[in-house]
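Lab meeting tomorrow. Look over both lines:
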Amino acid sequence: MSLRQADTDRPSAEEPSAFRDGQPPSTVELGRTVLVVDDEESIRTWLARSLDEFGCEVLKAPDTATAHAILQGFTVNALILDVRLARGSGLDVLEYVRAQERFAGLPVIVLTGSDLTAKEQDLIRRHRAHLFYKPQGIESIAETLDRLLRCESVTVESL
C-alpha cells in the first residue's frame, strides 16, 4: 500500500510513528518517501523537518520492528538508518532490505555517531549503502539522497 492509499482516519496503534505529527502527507514530490530509522527522537524529528524542506515525505521508526512493519505496509523510496539502536541495529534493516528482490535497488544512507568495526564497514560497502558520520550537515545528506532518488551516479567512498 502506498502512503497516499493509507487510511489515516483510523490509524492503528502502530501507524502514528509513520506519519509526521500523526497526519498524512500534504504536498510532496512523488517518489520521495524516505524511512528514517533512528532511536533518538530528536534525530528523527530533525531529519523529518529538514528533508521536508527538500520535498521528501518522511516516515519514522525508532527500531527495527517498526521499520519492518513500515516497509511491509508502505511504499518507501529510500532509507536512512542509524547503526546503533536501542532495540536492534540499522544494519539488520540493511541486510533485510538487500535480501529481498523488491528492495534490491533501494537507496540507503547509513548514519552513525560511533566508530564502526571492520565487519560493519564491510557490510555497508557490500550492500551499497552510503555512510555519513554524525553530526553531518543536512545539506550533504539531502544532496546525496536527491542524487540517489534521481538515479544519478553516486560514488561510495572508501571507509
Q: What stands out?
A: Confidence is low (pLDDT under 50) at residues 1-29, 152-159. Strands lie at 33-37, 57-61, 78-82, 108-112, 130-133.
